[in-house]
Amino acid sequence: MSLTGTVDPSLSHDVPAPPTSPTPTPSTAQPSSPSSHKALLAAVLIVALLAAIAIGFALGRIGGRAKSGPKQLALYGNVDLRQVQLAFNNSERIATVLVQEGDKVARGQVLARLDTSRLTSQVGAAQAAMEAQQAIVQRLHHGSRPEEIAQARANVVSAKADLVNAEQQWQRLQGLAKLTTGRAVSQQDLDGAKAALDVAQARLAVAQKGFDMAAIGPRVEDIAQGEAQLRGNQAQLALLHRQLADAELIAPSDAVVRSRLLEPGEMVSPQKPVFDLAITDPKWIRTYVPESDLGRIHSGMRASISADSFPGRTYPGWIGFISAVAEFTPKAVQTEELRPGLVYEIRVFVNDPNDELRLGMPATVHLSLQPSAHRAPQD
Questions:
Q1: Which CATH superfamily includes the segment(s) 72-81+281-368?
Q2: Is the pTM of the predicted complex or chain greater than 0.85?
Q3: What does the alpha-carbon distance between residue 78 and residue 23 come to, in Å, rounded to a whole number?
Q4: Reading across the β-sheet that carries 110-114, which strands appear in turn?
Q5: Given a cut of 60, is residue 64 above it in pLDDT?
C-alpha cells in the first residue's frame, strides 16, 4: 500500500514534491539531519575553547606565583636562652642558701652566703697593720719634731764643752811637763789627756752630724720605702675585703633558678657550682633556614613566633643572628617534610615579657618576605 503526498500549489515552484516511498515500519530509525551534526560540533568546539582558556589562565597564575615566590616563610625551631653556673670565688663552708629551684631572682640579689668568721679576723689584722704603716709614713713626711732638733743641738753644745775641757786638760799637762822637764807629769798622764781630747773631738763630730740629720729630716729613700710598704698593706686589706664580699653569691642578672646543686654545710670551691640559672632576657628561637631562602631574609627583619603550648597567641620578634657558615640539616630541626641539604642557623629574638616560653619548647617562626618588611628598632 502506498501513500501519495499532496503538494501545496503555492510552494510548487520552490520545493519539489518528495518522491513516493513506502511507509516505514515502526522498527526502522529516522536518520539524523545535517543541521544537528553542525550544532553538536559547534558545542564541542565552544567547550574545548573554554577549557583551553581556563587551563591557560591557571597555568599563568601558577607561573606567576612560582616566579614571585611565596610571601610567607615558616621556620621551625626551639626556644633557647643563656645559662649560667654560679660558683663562689672562695674555698669555705656554706652558711646559708636563700633560694630554691624555680625561684625568679633579680640582678644583684643575694643567693647564698659563706661562713666568714675566720675571714673577718684576717680583715681586722690587716686593717691594724695598714694603720700602723700609715702612721709611719706620716711621721716620715712630717720630719723631725722641734724637740728632737733641740735635743740634737743640746748634744752638740755638750760635746763642745767636753772638747774644751779636754783641750784645757791636755794643755795644762803639756805645760807642766815642760816646766818640770817631765818629772811632775808622767807619760801615761799625757797619753790619757791626749786620748780624752781625741774622744771629745769625735763626740762633737757625732753630735754635729746628728743635729744636721735632725734638721734635714728623713731620707727620700726611707719615705719611698714606707709608702711602698703602705701600698702593700692597703692591697692586702682590699683583697680581704674582696674575699669578704665574695662570701655572698650574687645573681648576675634577672634569671630563674634551674638547679640548686649544693646545700648549707658543704665545702665550696671555684670549681664547684652552687646554682644553675636560666637567663630570662634575651630569649631567642634557634632555627635553620634553607640555602635557597637565605637571600630573602636579613638581620633585623621582623618575625612572628607561635608555640603549640599557646594556640592562637603570637609573640613579636626579629632576626638577630644569621650564621656565616653552612651546615647540613640537623636532626633536631622539626619540619613538615624532610628537606635534606645545606641550611644556615639563625636566631630569632623574641619579646616574652611574661616569661611564658620555656627552654627547649618547640616554636614556629613566621617571616614576611614582602618588601615592606623592615628592621626592628635598635636599643
A1: Efflux pump adaptor protein, beta barrel domain (2.40.30.170)
A2: no
A3: 90
A4: 94-97, 110-114, 248-250
A5: no
